[in-house]
Design brief:
Distance between the termini: 77 Å
Radius of gyration: 25 Å
Strand order of the largest sheet: 1-2-3-4-5-7-8-9
Largest sheet: 8 strands, antiparallel, barrel
Helix content: 10-25%
Number of helices: 6
Order of helices and strands: HEHEEEEEEEEEHEHHEEEEEEH
Number of strands: 17
Strand content: 25-35%
Length: 405
């Protein structure tokens, strides 16, 4: 028994470091949020009914009251809505005015409800019928306590269209769930993501504490997730300082947004020199990875509505298709709908920002139609970002060499 107890800290510490290593790898593709990349911001209130006859041992949970709530609902891996994913709900509990306690963060994920399923993550297609709990128990006066949520009612259509009502429960790790409150949430108008960062280790409910083993398991991952990402990697929503994130034209039922894969690179050439390359449609195959040849260019290129007729692939497996300009700000940005059927279509946005010693060039891209959109978001982002980094390197060389003049 003594030997097992002495080994527990080392096991949880090793597992925590392993999770942190995984987070560092994910940040190469998702520097802003390695997991739960896209979310839906929700607000509402939590009504605690309390239960003096069967107290949990956590002061906040056992007392009746009403708290304000800011929340974020998300899918853990960020898979397409057609595939099951682990669902997450992060809550920031805001105490009533005059309270001596600060905000508390509670993180819940979709799991089973009974033992042992309540300790296993369970991917779900949507929240209908899903149950969630904290997975790792809090330490109260009477021992370990899990918090759980079950949906009572859903708004029609999506979470963004009305009020989501959930019942709050608590349980010991092996005991029955006991209802102790009700949570009501709704999205803003228009629906949006949340910039909140939740930390259940730093912000705990009054009377609750984290066990040392949960700290060792979770803290390295939180530290890795918050670490500043290296430059010129994929940026998620709001990842580029001073520049608002752009939403994709598509949306999801769960989040209301679907961020595009984004890469940036600083060029020594001026934005005018770079734009000359972009504005010459016949040079497209020289810098866009995957384009093998240009068959025709509309005379109006790059005006809105103009098309570039290109081929994709290597001989003899060559696909003829086209790209269309959907929006343009000459010298500053170009937005395309790039086609490559049977793989589908993608939205591509190229922006140029003048800098004193050159310019910053950014490419945002994601699939919007066809089989390519069915590829899991994490894998899709990794492939798109790798290709577009090479595209930027080629574009920089062509601009520096005077192409397009």
């Amino acid at each position: 028994m003594t030997q097992n107890a002495s080994q527990a800290p080392a096991v949880s510490r090793t597992a925590g470091q392993a999770f942190a290593g995984l987070f560092r790898l994910l940040k190469i593709v998702r520097p802003d949020r390695p997991i739960h990349p896209h979310g839906l911001a929700l607000t509402g209130e939590l009504t605690r009914t309390g239960n003096p006859a069967a107290p949990s041992g956590i002061d906040w949970l056992d007392a009746a009251g009403v708290d304000g709530v800011e929340a974020r609902f998300s899918r853990s891996v960020g898979l397409p809505q057609t595939l099951p994913d682990v669902l997450g709900l992060a809550l920031r509990i805001i105490p009533a005015a005059g309270s001596r306690t600060g905000p508390a963060d509670v993180l819940l994920a979709s799991t089973g409800w009974r033992v042992p399923g309540r300790f296993l993550l369970r991917p779900r297609l949507d929240v209908a019928g899903a149950t969630m709990n904290t997975l790792m128990p809090y330490r109260g006066r009477r021992g370990p306590v899990l918090l759980g949520l079950r949906t009572r009612s859903l708004p029609p259509g999506s979470l963004a269209s009305g009020e989501w009502v959930l019942a709050l429960h608590w349980a010991t790790p092996s005991g029955p769930w006991r209802e102790c409150g009700e949570l009501r949430l709704h999205a803003g108008n228009p629906p949006s993501d949340s910039s909140l960062r939740f930390d259940p280790l730093a912000n705990q409910p009054p009377g609750a504490a984290a066990y040392p083993w949960t700290r060792r398991l979770r803290k390295p991952s939180y530290r890795a997730a918050r670490k500043t990402a290296p430059p010129a990697v994929v940026r998620g929503p709001g990842g580029q300082a001073g520049r608002p994130a752009k939403d994709d034209t598509t949306s999801t039922t769960a989040t209301g947004r679907n961020a595009m894969s984004t890469v940036s690179q600083h060029f020594s050439s001026s934005s005018a020199d770079v734009w000359q390359v972009i504005a010459n449609g016949w040079l497209y195959s020289g810098w866009v990875v995957g384009a093998s040849r240009i068959r025709a260019v509309d005379a109006e290129w790059p005006q809105a509505g103009a098309r570039l007729h290109h081929s994709v692939g290597a001989w003899p497996l060559v696909i003829d298709d086209s790209s269309r300009v959907s929006a343009v700000d000459p010298g500053r940005s170009l937005e395309l709908v790039a086609r490559g059927w049977p793989m589908g279509e993608a939205r591509v946005v190229i922006t140029l920002e003048e800098r004193g010693d050159g310019c910053l060039v950014t490419i945002e891209e994601d699939a919007i139609r066809g089989p390519g959109k069915l590829v899991p978001k994490a894998l899709r982002d990794a492939a798109i970002s790798a290709r577009n980094r090479e595209t930027l390197r080629r574009l920089e060389l062509m601009a520096a060499g005077g192409a397009g003049r």
